[in-house]
Amino acid sequence: MLHEKQVKSILNKHKKRDSWFLDDYSVNPYEGCSCNCLYCYVRGSKYGENMDDGLAVKTNALEVLEKQLASRAKKNQYGFVAVGSATDAYIHHEEKYRLTEGMLKLLLKYRFPVFISTKCALITRDIELLKEIDRNAILPADLEDKLKKGLILSVSVSTLDEKVSHILEPGAASPLQRLALLKQLKQEGFLAGINAIPVLPFISDTEEELEKIIAAAKEYQADYVLTGGLTLFGSGTADSRTLFYKFLERYDASLLPKYQQLYGENFYPPFYYQDTLKERAKRLCRKHSVRNSILA
Ligand code: SF4
Predict the structure, then answer these.
(1) Which of 47, 87, 223, 251 is the most exposed place for a label (fewest CB within 10 A)?
(2) For the sheet containing 55-58, what is the strand order?
(3) Domain tally, the chain
(4) For atom 3 of ligand 1, which residue has the closest CA?
């Protein structure tokens, strides 16, 4: 079910810049997400609402965003704005409501640089608008020398296994369609890469599967691959841990005890796992000549 709601504030300023995506701000045109990924960190975490209640459209989003952008621009507080951090900016409701498009027009007007990570091909509708942002954005002073682009795009891929993706990311484009999208974005001249966050323990984090993702990144012309582990939140019926463990029971029940051992009571895998994943991804990126970060 789709709700409509009014918001008081929409532009979130981070305490510090995101080290992966380089955004200082985030903005979400919708609440909830029609990609419906079972592992979505919004389910059951402090970062978002329970997605079981359905989607909400923020009907006054543009009016509120304009005020907030105008105020930040006046104080010269430029920084990358992540459009869609707790939703995908291009969920299918965007075809009708066009809030993402409206936000991008405002970000262009006030010359803010933009980061978007998506699993949806609808982004191609806005290619000309995105090019304008890329050309006209004002970068934060400390990034000016390191980055010549005002727009960073990521295509998000957690697995290249079409069957697993179909179950885990039922409302998203297939992995192959996402790779084709990446190639198209690169051909349009954008800075674009793969956001392999999260990779899935024992499923897409194995040496073979991780290398497939990184090799595909190279093949489809990605500028970079970002890799990170899976978080699993909550114990309610619609929380990501519950949904993901149910998926494991159906997919391969032998993995369930391995996950229980890896996560215990935590919502993130242990540091040794994260460090090893980072090192492996770095090595495979070197092997395939792809950067493992946005900045060169
Ligand atoms: S695309 Fe992102 S925000 Fe949407 S359900 Fe999947 S993980 Fe959550």
Answers:
(1) 47
(2) 2-5, 55-58, 30-31
(3) 1
(4) 87
**CA 51 to ligand 1: nearest atom:** 5
Q: Indicate whether residue 116 lines ligand 1 (CB < 6 A).
A: no
What gap in Å lies between CA 136 and CA 272, rounded to an integer? 42
Which CATH number fits the domain that encloses residue 14? Answer: 3.20.20.70
Q: Which atom of ligand 1 is nearest to the CA of 39?
A: 7
Nearest C-alpha to atom 7 of ligand 1 is from which residue?
A: 40
According to DSSP, residue 139 is labeled P
Please give the residue range of the domain that contains residue 274.
2-287
Q: Are 41 and 233 in contact (CB under 8 A)?
A: yes
Whether residue 158 contacts residue 122, with contact meaning beta carbons closer than 8 Å, is answered with: no
Asked if residue 193 belongs to a domain, the reply is yes
Residue 292 lies in a domain: no
pLDDT in tens, 140-189: 999 999 998 999 999 999 999 999 999 999 999 999 999 999 999 999 99
Q: Which atom of ligand 1 is nearest to the CA of 36?
A: 5
d(CA 52, CA 36): 10
114 - beta bridge partners?
81, 151
Domain assignment of residue 37, yes or no: yes
In a domain, 295, yes or no: no
| Structure-token pair, residue 99 | 């809030």
pTM over 0.70: yes
pLDDT on residue 2: 81
Q: Which of 37, 83, 93, 166 is the pocket-test mutation for ligand 1 (most atoms within 8 Å of CB)?
A: 37
Confidence class for position 50, pLDDT limits 50, 70, 90: very low
pLDDT digits (tens, 9 = 90+) for 71-130: 999 999 999 999 999 999 999 999 999 999 999 999 999 999 999 999 999 999 999 999
37 CA distance to ligand 1 middle (Å): 5
Closest ligand 1 atom to Cα of 172:
1
